[in-house]
Amino acid sequence: MRAAVLHEIGQDKLEVLDDVEATSFGPGKVRIRVRATGLCHSDLSAMNGVLPQPAPFVPGHEGAGEILEVGEGVRTLRPGDRVVVCWLPACGACPACRRGQTELCLSGFMNAGTPNFTRPGGDVFGFAGTGTFAEEVVVDAGCAVPVPDDVPFDIAALIGCGVTTGLGAALNTADVAAGSSVAVIGCGGVGISAIQGARLRGAAEIVAVDPVASRRESALKFGATRAVSPEELPDAKQQVTAGEGFDYVFEVVGKSATARTAYEHTRRGGTLVVVGAGAMDDFLRLNMFELFFDEKRILPSMYGGGDVLRSYERTIALWRAGRIDLAGLITHRVPLAGINEALEGMRTGAALRTCIEL
Fold this sequence. Notes:
This protein is of the alpha/beta class. It has helices spanning about 40-45, 95-100, 105-110, 155-160, 160-175, 190-200, 215-220, 235-240, 255-265, 290-295, 310-320, 340-350; strands at about 5, 15, 20, 30-40, 55-60, 60-70, 80-85, 115-120, 120-125, 135-140, 145, 180-185, 205-210, 225-230, 245-250, 265-275, 295-300, 330-335, 355. The strands form four sheets. Strands 4, 6, 7, 10, 11, 18 and 19 form a seven-stranded mixed beta sheet that branches. A six-stranded parallel beta sheet has the order 14-13-12-15-16-17, sandwiched between helices. It has a four-stranded mixed beta sheet with strand order 3-8-9-5, with no helix packed on it. Helix 5 runs parallel beside helix 6 and helix 5 (about 160-175) crosses helix 11 (about 310-320). The longest helix has 13 residues, at about 310-320. The radius of gyration is 20 Å and the shape is globular. The N and C termini lie close together (about 10 Å). The model has no long low-confidence stretch (mean pLDDT about 95).
């Protein structure tokens, strides 16, 4: 089958090969025919080494498709089921799951260290234990979440990561209050989803911050009340909050510099939500006096900060009701052969979300 492979960390292009095989099918596993997958910035971060991932590997973790085959012991799925690929499944038994913090379950991360593809040259890993830039994947049954047949594959794919992360940051982690002021730094697919979440919660002012003009224009269509470049953020803070700072600031870039900017533009007693996934050697500097004196809440948001299955269900319900726009997030569509073109669109900021159709 065909799959896009990164041979070494640090390479900026993928090679589309036709000699890759999804492996390890057996009890408790399912084989999925991938129909659509989104390109998420985390895929780039894994390729350049910001996020740890053994190589060679097949990127992609935001996918949807249909079940081809189920292994022994799988009772809740059957061939033909339409599913979202969940890269962070909950085991239901660990301390985090028992506390109700299923987004902190580590069982999914354990899959990342086990090869789930092979080719004549040897084993190949799948990013985050999945690897959806491939025509087929074999994953644990818990990684395949059924969705209704009326949810198109491209929409379902977005729910698998970016939309769940951004919406959840606003609805679960921040619990944005009606009438509040919000700033979102970084307006790709995840940031736009955070904007939609803040709008759903009734935020009075939502300021989108991004260096790319086209993304700022898109943010206004999705619910931002104004859109500014990073250089214009201090003026927006003055105009919207009289200089006090925003009630909520979402950092959706994953860099200490933007997290520091977000902190400085959060009001005293306000909430900074860290959504972007950054590098382990990139440290955020805060002094002990400001931590005490400003009483700002710093809330990391992992995969939307809530129960993943419930988040999927909520997202589908909101989409059906017309309360959120998911189709509008997809600005580009390419076949697997065009994956490197899609990567460049992500790097330049030209695309909100690119759907790779397989």
